[in-house]
Design brief:
The protein has one helix at 24-35, and strands at residues 5-17, 51-67, 77-79. By secondary structure, the protein is mainly β. The protein has one domain. The radius of gyration is 18 Å and the shape is elongated. The relative contact order is 0.23.
Length: 93
């Protein structure tokens, strides 16, 4: 019988940051300093003045599937991007 599931999709996020820099290395160091301050500077909309754009990349890195009727998450399972349970070579759970 089919039932409701909550699926957490983990994806890579691309964050576009505006910096004035002398070269590519300097630009990357500045961008890392802005994005890596401990508080991620984006939400569903840009959350820091230097962040011009943010959108999901075309890459999913993992999934976490919870069953809605399982409040203790005893049946939750993490999967890789290939839908295989993390740490196994088997197919879907």
């Amino acid at each position: 019988m089919s039932k409701l599931h909550h699926v957490h999709v983990y994806t890579t996020i691309r964050v576009k940051v505006a910096v004035i820099a002398e070269d590519h290395a300097d630009a990357m160091r500045q961008a890392e300093a802005i994005v890596g301050r401990g508080v991620f500077p984006v939400r569903l909309f840009p959350g820091a003045a230097a962040v011009l754009d943010a959108q999901p990349a075309e890459e999913i890195t993992a999934y976490l599937v919870d069953e809605a009727d399982d409040p203790e998450c005893e049946n939750s399972c993490s999967y890789g991007p290939d839908f295989r349970p993390e740490g196994t070579r088997d197919g879907l759970r």
